[in-house]
Amino acid sequence: MDGNGRWAKQQGMARVFGHRNGVKAVRETAEASAELGIEYLTLFAFSTENWNRPAMEVNALMKLLVDTLSKEVETLNENDIRLEAIGDLDKLPAKSHKALLKGIEDTKTNSRMTMILALNYSARWEIVEAARKMAIEVKEGKLDARQIEDKTFENYLTTKNYPDPELMIRTSGEQRISNYLLWQLAYTELYFTDVLWPDFRKQHLYEALIDFQSRERRFGKTSEQLA
C-alpha cells in the first residue's frame, strides 16, 4: 500500500495525513474483495524496515493501527471478514499488539473472507525463521533433513495456513517486491499502478482484476497443455 507520504506532500500536509487517508482505501478494497468472492486479501501494512523511519511517523502509525482496529472491527463483522496477521508480531508496541489480538479474536468466527495484515513483516526474516526452526528440529531428531521438500518448508512459514497469492498489486508506481512474500510470490502475477494508495478505490481493484483475467497462467507448461 504505497504512496501515502507522497499523497500527503501533494496536499501540503505531513506524511501522517496520508496514512490516515489510506484507511479509506483499505476499507473499500476489503469490502470490494469480499463482494467479489475473493477468499484471501493480504495487506502489507508495516515492514521491519519501516522502523527506520522518523520516530514521530512510526509512533503515529502505531497509534493509527490501534485507532483503526478499534473502529473497523464492526465493519469487518458486518462484512463477515476475519482478521488475521503475519510478521514478528511480538515486537509491536504493547498497545498495538493488544488491539491487533483483540481484532483477531473479535472476528475469528467470520468466514466470508480472511484479511491478513502483514505487520513488522519481512520475507527474509520469515525465511530465516523457518530455516532456524527446521534446523532445531533436525538437531532434536524431530525432522529428517533428507526428507525436506518444498511443502515441508512451507509448513514453517507464517503463511502456512493460506494459499499462495494469485495476484500482487503495488500502488504509487513502484515496481519492486520490497522484501514481501518472496517465497509465496514465486508464481504470482504482478500488477503495478501509478495510483497513490489514498486514492485507490474499488474501480482500481476492478482494473487490476480485469488485467489479471487476461493473463495466461502456465506454471511452466505450454499454452497447448492448458487448452
SSE diagram, text form:
Blueprint: H1 4-10, H2 15-36, E1 40-47, H3 55-78, E2 81-86, H4 94-106, E3 113-121, H5 123-139, H6 150-154, E4 167-170, E5 189-192, H7 202-213, H8 223-226
Parallel strand pairs: 1-3, 2-3, 4-5
Helix pairs in contact: 1-2, 2-3, 3-4
Features:
227 residues; alpha/beta; Undecaprenyl pyrophosphate synthetase; 5 strands; 46% helix
Please give a structural write-up.
The structure is a single chain. Helix 4 links the parallel strand 2 (81-86) and strand 3 (113-121). The chain has one domain: Decaprenyl diphosphate synthase-like (Undecaprenyl pyrophosphate synthetase). Helix 2 runs parallel beside helix 3. The strands form two sheets. The protein has a three-stranded parallel sheet with strand order 1-3-2, sandwiched between helices. The mean pLDDT is 95. Helices cover 46% and strands 14% of the residues. The chain is globular. The chain is of the alpha/beta class and 227 residues long. It has eight helices and five strands, in the order H-H-E-H-E-H-E-H-H-E-E-H-H.
